[in-house]
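Aim 2 progress update. The chain analyzed this quarter is reproduced below.
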Amino acid sequence: MESKLKAALGLSKVKSRGTRGGGCISEGNVFETEKGMIFAKVNKDNEASLMFDGEVAGLTAIDETDTVRVPKPIKVVNLNTAGVALVMEYIEMHGLSKYAETLGEQLARMHLFNASLKT
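Predicted structure tokens:
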């Protein structure tokens, strides 16, 4: 995967730093590059590229509200037989319970942003 990411992103250094945040749909991988850390979410489903294009659109829309901090998408990369990767900014995650109230307030502001688009 490292060589595919190097070529697709125009990087000379891509070194795996292990898996993170995997789920039942996609696998998460962290990589160190000469430009900093990146996160690659990998899926082998036939529709993975379409799914990740939708996720890029969603993350971009949320980011544009300037309310909730989300990772910035970098690129959707075809890994051939290894699937498709959504490459994005890596954000170090910590326990979220102490941030739950702040997150709730940010989500409320995001929904107000959406409502303001209709007026």
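The helical segments are 2-9, 48-64, 100-116. The chain has three helices and five strands. These observations will guide the mutagenesis experiments scheduled for the next reporting period.
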